[in-house]
Write a structure and sequence with these properties.
disordered N terminus; mainly beta; binds calcium ion; Jelly Rolls; 3% helix
């Protein structure tokens, strides 16, 4: 019973057969993107991201390598094409996303995601430019607001392609109603999904903004996580196996990720649908904190 990490539903097609760049958004700019309703009215095919331009947007955290408060993007359309592209690897379904003004952590806008219950109903925004320039210290910070509590089934709202693990994803999401990490390549979870491990993590309060921060040290192969500024013991992997928390994660041996992109959205493996919002999303090489955006 302790080994309950595994999802009962055929999860993701493994990364093994994907093209190396499969996780980046292939829809934007392809011939059929203009007819793709999933990114509302954006005409991204005509918006050529300028790789030399600063990737941050104006705002309190605009000096960071990646920072978006979604204020500069029009409501109902896609987020800034200079920062984000649409990502729906392998298949597409009912998932949609757009900039929204019904909820906001900062200003008036946030990114709304309506994720469906099937794997192919997933939808993400992806940034593939910043991660390769970061590291080995990778810090992320985002505010997330879930419309309902995380359920028992496995879901993902943050995915990062690990170039050192066959391009499979390092995922953050939920299972057993708490925040957890999942390693796509072998389905390991952090924490272990037994009662003690679950008790060492936290739930996301529905209909409230929560600040989530993570630190991945690619050299050490470690993970640290803070929710509303407080470290979450069940979401820490410091290289030494901790019973009920990181023993499964570390059982495979050396894990040295090389993160290649950053995706926020929704992907569900056991049927849970979700409307959720993201705001004040940032990546940096040092801890960002919850107070500057
Ligand atoms: Ca905002």
């Amino acid at each position: 019973m302790i080994a309950s990490a595994h999802c009962s539903v055929a999860e993701a097609p493994s990364g093994a057969h994907r093209a190396p760049d499969d996780a980046s958004a292939v829809d934007v700019g392809t011939p059929d993107s203009a007819a793709n309703p999933r990114l509302a009215s954006g005409d991204e095919a005509g918006a050529s991201p300028d790789a030399s331009a600063p990737t941050g947007t104006a705002g309190p955290c605009g000096a960071l390598p990646l920072c978006d408060d979604f204020e500069s993007a029009a409501v109902g359309g896609p987020p800034s094409a200079a920062l984000w592209s649409l990502s729906q690897p392998d298949c597409t379904g009912t998932g949609t996303l757009s900039v929204d003004d019904s909820q906001a952590h900062s200003g008036k806008h946030s990114l709304r995601v309506d994720g469906g219950g099937g794997y192919c109903d997933h939808v993400f925004v992806a940034n593939a430019a910043v991660m390769p320039a970061l590291g080995p210290a990778v810090y992320g910070r985002f505010f997330v607001r879930v419309g309902a509590a995380l359920g028992a089934g496995h879901v993902t709202f943050l995915a990062m392609k690990d170039a050192a693990d066959k391009g499979s994803d390092l995922r953050m999401g939920g299972q057993d109603a708490i925040l957890m990490y999942n390693r796509q390549s072998d389905d390991a979870t952090l924490p272990n999904l037994g009662p003690a491990g679950v008790a060492d993590s936290v739930a996301l309060a529905p209909a409230a903004w929560t600040c989530v921060e993570f630190h991945v040290d690619e050299t050490a192969g470690t993970i640290d996580t803070w929710v509303d500024g407080a470290e979450v013991a069940g979401l820490v992997e410091n290289g030494t196996p901790t019973p009920d928390v990181s023993s499964q994660w570390l059982s495979r041996g050396a894990w040295k990720p090389m993160l290649a992109d950053f995706r926020l959205g929704w992907e569900s493996y056991s049927g849970q649908t979700m409307t959720l919002w993201f705001d004040d999303v940032a990546l940096a090489s040092k801890r960002i904190g919850c107070g500057n955006g």
